[in-house]
Amino acid sequence: MRPDDEVGYADSGYQGVAKRPEIIGDPDLAKIDWRVAARKSKLKAMPAHDQEVEVKSLLVV
Predict the structure, then answer these.
(1) Which helix (H) or strand (E) holds 45?
(2) Cβ contact 2:31 at 8 Å
(3) Which of 2, 16, 26, 61 has the most CB within a 10 Å radius?
(4) Distances in Å between the alpha carbon of 2 and those of 14, 27, 29, 59?
(5) Given the DSSP bridges, would you call strands 33-36 and 7-10 parallel, antiparallel or unpaired?
């Protein structure tokens, strides 16, 4: 991550990244809006339309 990044995208393994001590302790990383993918089990439990919205929101274009 660069100091000027405003949004960070991560896979589902990074759940809770915004609460981690190394992120909170770094002023640049603490300002980032983290977008973390949902876990597969959570996606499977969602209605089909919500699954599409969730996946599309994480696509980097």
Answers:
(1) helix 40-45
(2) no
(3) 26
(4) 18, 12, 9, 20
(5) parallel
